[in-house]
Amino acid sequence: MRTIRIGSRASRLALVQAELIIDGLREKFPQYQYEIIKIITKGDKILDKTLDKIGGKGLFVREIQKALIDKEIDLAVHSMKDMPADSPEGLMLGAITKREDPRDVLVTKNHIPWSQLPTDARIGSSSLRRQAQLLNLNGCLKIEPIRGNVETRISKIETQTLDGVILAAAGLNRLGLTEEIAHYFNTEEFVPAVGQGALGCEIRKDDEELYNILQELNHKETYNTVMAERSFLKVMEGGCHVPIGAYGKKVGEELQLTGMVGAPNGKEIIKETEIGGFDDFVEIGRRLAEKMQSKGAKELLEEVANKDPKDRLIKE
């Protein structure tokens, strides 16, 4: 009887997400054994610097991917928003499970709604994508960099005297913290990160048995829309270093993909939408990227990427 070893970050949210995958597998394939292997990533170890200063989103997956390549684990469970646009040689995405709520949300002190926050409210976030869109909505906000797991970031409302923090709805929902949410930003005004709310199952390309098993968990609508977002990201060559987002959804029998690139100060936001056949997700992502590049998105990203990281986050 095969034991399938699942690699996961050690945070409570990551372990909850790994258990969700195991629950789905165990329901379909009770004949296998399942074991979670906790892996501490560089992104989990360094909490006193923003991601753009220490290497970007790949810091949350590289050690797990190495364990997969070295056959220390059989399956890596990732938050899709943490994954770079390409998998390393020899690895592949075996499945993307059904997406949770993709929206960004606001958690505030005393549950004060967005509309009642002070004009110069202090909001915690180290995401340049969130910063750009927040300041585009209200240029007077004070954005404070914060790192840590979900619970730690919520606690910083008190410890850093913040008015609120921006988080992903999916993580709060999975942790049973939905009641903490004071405001949901709709995906039209506030474009999510690529893959936000979705979980990816990464495996070795030569593991045909596990690939076939994972097809029972793969959610086609989520897979197509997230892969369209990743196609856009790959052409744009974006990551945590720059304010970039994309969100795909099924509309009738078509796939609608919206992309966003912004200046960290929120004064310039480039946002476009592309629609096409539901299975043409790679092409839709490419076309959207080219459309946005024609509007100056590439130059804006390059300008941001070339700035000193300390100058990208707005300070008081």
UniProtKB/TrEMBL annotation:
The modification S-(dipyrrolylmethanemethyl)cysteine is found at C240. Residues 225-293 form the Porphobilinogen deaminase C-terminal domain. It catalyses: 4 porphobilinogen + H2O = hydroxymethylbilane + 4 NH4(+). The keyword Kinase does not apply. It comes from the Bacteria. Residues 4-210 form the Porphobilinogen deaminase N-terminal domain. PANTHER family: PORPHOBILINOGEN DEAMINASE. Belongs to the HMBS family. The porphobilinogen subunits are added to the dipyrromethane group. This is Porphobilinogen deaminase. It comes from Alkaliphilus hydrothermalis.
